[in-house]
Design brief:
Blueprint: H1 2-9, H2 11-19, E1 24-31, H3 35-46, E2 51-55, E3 69-70, H4 72-80, H5 84-88, E4 92-94, E5 96-99, E6 102-105, E7 116-118, H6 121-134, E8 138-141, E9 145-151, E10 154-159, E11 164-172, H7 179-184, E12 190-191, E13 196-203, E14 211-214, E15 219-224, E16 230-235, H8 247-258, E17 265-274, E18 277-279, E19 284-285, E20 288-290, E21 296-297, H9 305-324, H10 334-356, H11 362-375, H12 378-389, E22 412-415, E23 418-421, H13 422-425, E24 432-435, E25 452-455, E26 462-464, E27 467-470, E28 475-478, E29 484-488, H14 495-503
Parallel strand pairs: 1-2, 1-11, 2-8, 11-20, 24-25
Antiparallel strand pairs: 3-7, 4-7, 5-6, 9-10, 10-11, 12-18, 13-16, 13-17, 14-15, 15-16, 18-21, 19-20, 22-23, 24-28, 26-27, 28-29
């Protein structure tokens, strides 16, 4: 860490070194090949951007299973790109969302994916890696970034093998200890840990106590995985341990809780997580951006981390692509922070509350019981389940129609070419102007190379999980990330301004 920070500060040395060597050039370099980095690379590739990943692991099989599933909105995001079936074919559907220990049914939510999907992170990463390989994304494996320097023409990046890369933009998707964030000098304020957990995939020699246990130390769990592997999550007695955990640490923690370590051996992965909660003060500094855990860390309660990171990537990808291609000004990148920072801030608040409800004392038990009763009521259930599933996210685009800034429902449309789903229209990652009424009195030709016009019909009301049904508008402008940027009718007031704001000025 110290070596990295020293090299990053030594801009003069890095500049003189890179000047003497031939650097491989990419338009965007992504540091970190986890779910967030892979999703961002795919989004950029769909937009024709030469994006590459630097990943310290030699292959994707080395991914652990810190995350264990996908929420409804993340599955919708994958559906928008035509890859949801790849995940659904390998996972197990559960029609629930969770807050603390409370399970909330979402089977009545008006979405094609009114469920969660149990699927280990290893499988999620492998599917995404296959997708980005099909899109031609380059992954520089087995390497780390040692330093970078930003100049007027881009960023020069030094790798651990002594090679250099050049990019127009650098995106840190390199986790909570992000080297990119630290070297860029972006503050990471928040709260220090109060609990510490070990998480492992390992083999055991004797039959364990399966399931969840709660005691004075914390919450622990053992569950079956593939083959002989067992997923172990156990709370440590003490916080503050530094460095990578060892098998001896895991054995000791199991004995503290269960009185035995069950003969744990042959760990496939072993890591530590805490309830440390922090968020980057800014998601962008010049040509450096942050996404996923590099931008926000929090306890894993509710399985929010992977979902938030993937959706960061989908929000950022098309915006960064337009800036790189010269379609939109750099100011478009500021909307990434403006939209995603509040979403993660709410996740941080929710997970901190969930950790507080984990405590095993009688007063916390009483509060947890009260929350269970509260979330069994219809309106609180819909509110919390909409939040935990990601279906209620609404970006602030100003006053207007209730759909403005919300996810576009995946309607079954009737078009001249036959039946069509809204999400199918988004497979290419392009914005769509969906006209559902009379012909628009608007000339879209100045944006025709960027925005697809689709005339269609839809009968009935639109349902969103956290607001009442709304009558279908005459037309909607849908961003590539699936959120509604403009709502209007045959006399499209404000459409030109919305097109310019999100997809660049007119070419005429």
């Amino acid at each position: 860490m110290q070596q990295f920070e020293t090299r990053a500060r030594d801009a003069g040395r890095l500049e003189s070194s890179s000047a003497d060597r031939t650097a491989i050039s990419h338009q965007v370099l992504i540091v970190g090949g986890g779910p967030t980095g892979l999703m961002l690379a795919g989004e950029l590739a769909l937009s024709g951007i030469d994006a590459a990943i630097v990943e310290r692991r030699a292959n994707q099989d080395l991914a652990g299973s810190r995350a264990g599933g996908l929420h409804a909105r993340t599955i919708e995001v994958f559906d928008q790109r035509g890859i949801a079936d790849r995940f659904l074919s390998q996972g197990q559907i559960a029609q629930v969302a969770r807050f603390a220990d409370v399970t909330m049914d979402i089977s009545d939510f008006p979405t094609r994916h009114n469920y969660g999907l149990a699927l280990w992170q290893r499988q999620i990463e492998q599917i995404l890696a296959e997708w980005v390989a099909e899109l031609g994304v380059t992954i520089h494996r087995g390497l780390e970034v040692l330093g970078f320097v930003e100049g007027g023409a881009g960023i020069d990046i030094e790798l651990s093998n002594g090679a250099f890369l050049h990019a127009h933009y650098l995106v840190g998707c390199d986790g909570g200890r992000s080297l990119v964030r630290k070297a860029a000098g972006i503050d990471f304020p928040g709260w220090d840990p109060t609990t510490s957990n070990l998480i492992a995939e390992a083999e055991i020699s004797s039959e364990p106590e399966w399931g969840i246990r709660r005691d004075a130390i914390g919450i622990h769990g053992l569950s079956r995985m593939d083959g002989a592997m067992v997923r172990i999550v156990v709370t440590e007695r003490q916080t503050g341990a530094s460095g990578e955990p060892t098998l001896a640490d895991l054995s000791r923690a199991l004995i503290d809780v269960y009185g035995t370590d069950y003969g744990v051996h042959n760990p496939r992965s072993l890591g530590r997580f805490t309830d440390m909660t922090r968020q980057a003060a800014s998601y962008r500094k010049g040509r450096v951006l942050l996404a996923g855990d590099a931008a926000h860390i929090h306890p894993p309660d509710g399985g929010q981390g992977l979902q938030t990171g993937v959706q960061d990537a989908v929000n950022l990808g098309w915006k960064l692509a337009q800036v790189v291609r010269g379609i939109s000004p750099e100011s478009l990148l500021d909307t990434y922070h403006a939209e995603r920072h509040p979403v993660a801030a709410r996740v941080l608040r929710t997970t901190m509350a969930s950790v507080a409800l984990r405590r095993g004392d009688e007063r916390t038990n009483a509060l947890r019981d009260t929350m269970t009763e509260f979330l069994a009521m219809e309106e609180p259930r819909r509110r919390f389940a909409g939040m935990m599933s990601g279906l209620d996210i609404a970006y602030d685009f100003g006053e207007g129609h209730p759909l403005l800034g919300r996810r576009m429902p995946d309607l079954d449309l009737t078009t001249d070419a036959g039946p069509q789903r809204v999400f199918t229209l988004l497979h290419e990652g392009r914005p769509v102007l969906l006209n559902l009424g009379d012909p628009l009195a608007f000339d879209l030709r100045p944006w025709a190379d960027r925005v697809r016009l689709v005339d269609a019909r839809y009968d009935g009301e639109w349902q969103l999980p956290v607001i009442c049904a709304v009558s279908p508008p005459g037309a909607v402008l849908i961003r590539p990330d699936g959120y509604v940027a403009w709502v209007g009718g045959p006399a499209p007031t404000g459409l030109g301004e919305a097109l310019t704001r999100w997809f660049g000025p007119s070419t005429v």
